[in-house]
């Protein structure tokens, strides 16, 4: 029985989660011709050919060349699969190396648990008037905030986990969109980020994910990680799954 590998591409941030994960696919021996099988058939063909019209030398050479090419391609495929598996293992090692580290990830999701929202941050490259909206999982706007004029710098969205009437929203995931309007009137969406200690990583998801701040924390794809700031002083014991 022979085994071939089919690579599955995984898009990611360069250096983290960038890999091809080989998936094994087995084929039965009845569908595979190895060197021994080829030589057996080749000799049978020679023994049973028409003596009045024997195979020409160029035909013999052509069949041998074809088999040699197939054998070389098969070996190349096997070697490529080994390289891909090595790359996947190396990449997984890089992913797990961030467990316990404090990271920054690009995302716009706020998770509300027991009425308390997670913190989401943003950076202004220049002074602007800032507004933000909070939407539920159905795309309904539950809160709109006007933060006024802010100078260039780092900020956190001050949402308290309430709707426009001041009522605490239901637990779950909410989308936060921050916009900045410059002095010339142009408005741009501002990239938001979350920060936290990597508690664990899940290598079985595609792409792999990190769980930040604890067992009930924020799940972020490794492809969204944009920075590592070092070890956290948190007492939570990190784990690698």
Mean pLDDT: 77
CATH topology heading of the domain at 102-195: Immunoglobulin-like
Give the overall silhouette.
Answer: elongated
Distance between the termini: 32 Å
Please provide the count of β strands. 15
Global Rg = 29 Å
| Number of helices in the DSSP assignment | 2
| Structural class based on helices, strands and sheet pairing | alpha+beta
- CATH class of the domain at 102-195, please? Mainly Beta
Characteristic terms for this protein:
single chain; alpha+beta; Immunoglobulin-like; seven-stranded antiparallel sheet; 15 strands; 40% strand; disordered C terminus
SSE blueprint and pairings:
Elements: E1 2-10, E2 19-27, H1 35-47, H2 57-96, E3 101-106, E4 109-113, E5 116-117, E6 121-124, E7 128-135, E8 141-150, E9 153-156, E10 172-181, E11 187-190, E12 192-202, E13 209-212, E14 218-221, E15 225-231
Antiparallel strand pairs: 1-2, 3-12, 3-15, 4-5, 4-10, 6-9, 6-12, 7-8, 7-10, 10-11, 12-13, 13-14
Summary of the model, kept short:
Helix content is about 20%, strand content about 40%. It has about 240 residues and is of the alpha+beta class.
Q: What does this protein structure show overall?
A:
The protein has 241 residues and is an alpha+beta fold. The protein has a domain at 102-195: Immunoglobulin-like (Sandwich), CATH 2.60.40. It is 22% helix and 40% strand. It is built from 2 helices and 15 strands. It has helices spanning 35-47, 57-96, and strands at 2-10, 19-27, 101-106, 109-113, 116-117, 121-124, 128-135, 141-150, 153-156, 172-181, 187-190, 192-202, 209-212, 218-221, 225-231. The two termini are 32 Å apart.
């Amino acid at each position: 029985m022979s085994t071939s590998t089919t690579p599955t591409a995984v898009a990611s941030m360069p250096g983290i989660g960038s890999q091809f994960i080989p998936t094994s696919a087995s084929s039965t021996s009845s569908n595979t011709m190895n060197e021994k099988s080829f030589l057996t058939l080749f000799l049978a063909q020679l023994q049973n050919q028409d003596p009045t019209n024997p195979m020409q030398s160029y035909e013999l050479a052509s069949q041998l060349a074809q088999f040699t090419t197939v054998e070389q391609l098969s070996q190349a495929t096997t070697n490529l699969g080994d390289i891909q598996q090595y790359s996947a293992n190396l990449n997984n090692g890089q992913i797990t190396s961030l467990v316990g580290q404090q990271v920054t990830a690009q995302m716009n999701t706020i998770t509300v648990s027991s009425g308390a929202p997670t913190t989401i941050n943003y950076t202004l490259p220049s002074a602007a008037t800032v507004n933000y909206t909070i939407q539920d999982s159905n795309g309904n706007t539950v809160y709109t905030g006007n933060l006024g004029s802010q100078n260039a710098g780092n900020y956190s969205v001050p949402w308290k986990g309430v709707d426009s009437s001041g009522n605490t929203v239901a637990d779950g995931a909410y989308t936060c969109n921050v916009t900045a309007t410059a002095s010339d009137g142009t408005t741009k969406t501002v990239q938001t980020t979350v920060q936290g200690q990597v508690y664990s990583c899940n290598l079985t998801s595609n792409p792999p994910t990190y769980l930040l701040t604890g067992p009930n924390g924020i799940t972020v794809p490794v492809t969204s990680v944009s920075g590592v700031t070092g070890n956290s002083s948190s007492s939570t014991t990190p784990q690698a799954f």
